[in-house]
């Protein structure tokens, strides 16, 4: 009878010690956590001024290009082959006046995010890193991008020439292209419909 009493007390003692250790660890870990500020400034304080702005010539990126780049996390390395504002209008029939109207914003967002999937690679690739020969990289959507450098130093991606190179926004490298990098199915879906009558 005495043995059962001791076994019960030892189990209670072990449970008490484990509980106290867990409480002590929890208490010490809360003392070492940094203080979290609340409000709108909490998010902004984490970003630097350099991350929020393009390094130079923002007007070259355009409204749709800015929209594309904003879809990516600023603290990870990506390379985006952004169509110029002129290429968005010519190849995708998007313009700032009509595309951002309330009834068109969802379609605009869908088109721009689809183009982002075709034209972004998950690594930094500046123009200096592109060899004279052709290299291939998979885009975010799995579409293969064939990237080469022309004699004049411009980058050519799947037959689309660059207009401006090596713009940066945080860790993201942006090359502005004179066309849209996209697959054949998407290209067919955005081509204008012609009426025979």
Task: Describe the 3D structure.
The chain has 197 residues and is α+β, with helices and mostly antiparallel strands. Helices cover 43% and strands 19% of the residues. The protein has 7 helices and 7 strands. Strands 2-1-7-6-5-4-3 form a 7-stranded mixed sheet. Strand 4 and strand 5 form a beta hairpin. Helix 3 crosses helix 6. The radius of gyration is 27 Å and the shape is elongated. About 8% of the residues have low confidence.
Q: How many whole angstroms does the radius of gyration measure?
A: 27 Å
Please give the alpha-carbon distance between the first and last residues.
Answer: 103 Å
Largest sheet: 7 strands, mixed
Number of strands: 7
Q: Approximately what portion of the residues adopt beta-strand conformation?
A: 15-25%
Envelope shape: elongated
Side-by-side strand order of the widest sheet:
2-1-7-6-5-4-3
SSE topology:
Blueprint lengths: L1 H31 L7 H7 L11 H13 L7 E6 L1 H8 L3 H4 L5 H15 E2 L13 E4 L5 E6 L5 E3 L2 E10 L2 E6 L6 H7 L7
Helix pairs in contact: 3-6
Summarize the entry for a quick read.
By secondary structure, the protein is α+β, with helices and mostly antiparallel strands.
What descriptive keywords fit this protein?
single chain; seven-stranded mixed sheet; 7 strands; 43% helix; 197 residues; alpha+beta
């Amino acid at each position: 009878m005495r043995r059962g009493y001791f076994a019960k007390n030892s189990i209670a003692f072990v449970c008490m010690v484990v509980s106290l250790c867990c409480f002590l660890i929890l208490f010490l870990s809360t003392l070492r956590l940094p203080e979290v500020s609340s409000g709108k400034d909490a998010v902004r304080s984490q970003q630097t001024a350099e991350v929020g702005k393009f390094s130079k010539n923002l007007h070259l990126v355009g409204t749709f290009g800015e929209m594309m780049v904003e879809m990516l996390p600023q603290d990870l390395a990506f390379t985006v082959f952004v169509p110029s504002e002129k290429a968005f209008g010519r190849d995708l029939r998007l313009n700032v006046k009509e595309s951002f109207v309330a009834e068109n914003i969802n379609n605009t967002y869908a088109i721009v995010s689809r183009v982002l999937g075709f034209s972004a690679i998950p690594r930094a690739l500046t123009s200096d890193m592109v060899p004279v020969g052709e290299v291939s990289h998979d885009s975010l959507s799995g579409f293969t991008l064939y990237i080469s450098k022309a004699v004049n130093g411009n980058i050519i991606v799947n037959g689309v020439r660059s207009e401006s190179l090596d713009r940066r926004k945080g860790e993201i490298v942006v090359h502005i292209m004179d066309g849209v990098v996209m697959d054949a199915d998407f290209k067919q879906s955005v081509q204008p419909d012609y009426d025979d009558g």
